[in-house]
Amino acid sequence: MRLGWYSRVAHLKLYRADMHIHTCLSPCGDWGMSPKAITRKSCQMGLDIIAICDHNTAENAGAVIRAGQKHGITVLPGMEICSKEEVHVLAIFETYDRALNMQAFVYDHLPGENSADLWGEQIVVDENDEVIAENSNLLIGATTLSLYELVDKINNFNGLCIASHIDRPAFGIISNLGFIPDDLQFCGLEVSWRMSLNEAAASISGIGRFPCITSSDAHYIEDVGKVWTGFMLEAPTFAEIRMAFEGRSGRRIVRKEIILKEVQ
What we know:
With 264 residues, this protein is of the alpha/beta class. 25% of the residues lie in helices and 21% in strands.
């Protein structure tokens, strides 16, 4: 293992995770965000776990999972879904089949067709970076799902439901709703690389009742692993990560943010 940090519970170790990475399938993502490039860069950055969360789709997650297996990296399949209120939510799953089930539900509520000239190309690839197809859905758009409908469906599919980049002025729950409703069942919140978790806790009202992570939201290969979240786990698995969000059996999120380069 790359990391040798042990917790006070002897069988738990610190694993580095970047839980929000896009691929070349996201229309705002770079062509260089291919499965092989993402997993190679993740290794270089010392990551143990990554989650692939393209906009409103999971089609490239399977290819990154297979590429990650060659490098010993745990790759979790997910999506970054846009509610009709234009709030972004991370939906991360244990298996690719569950992610595809969520994708089918999202596609049924995702109007519009992509224009590559306007919004960018949406490239589906395999684990060898070979182009398979181009997705024609308007992935950059908002679904017709309310935030409540979206959160309920993610939880029904046993996913991790995390409010995306809550500190950002666009597509965050705070900027769009003004607050986090008490009855929305998020398992956690994501803070972007723009703000440390300590700064977020001090300046954003209502987040103290949620576990918080920080992620790169990488659309370009140089941003993968720019920040990471530490998880104290027995193994780098979805089940262990869920336990960390819930604070069970010593598993926990380590509130430490490492920024590997200064962003101007």
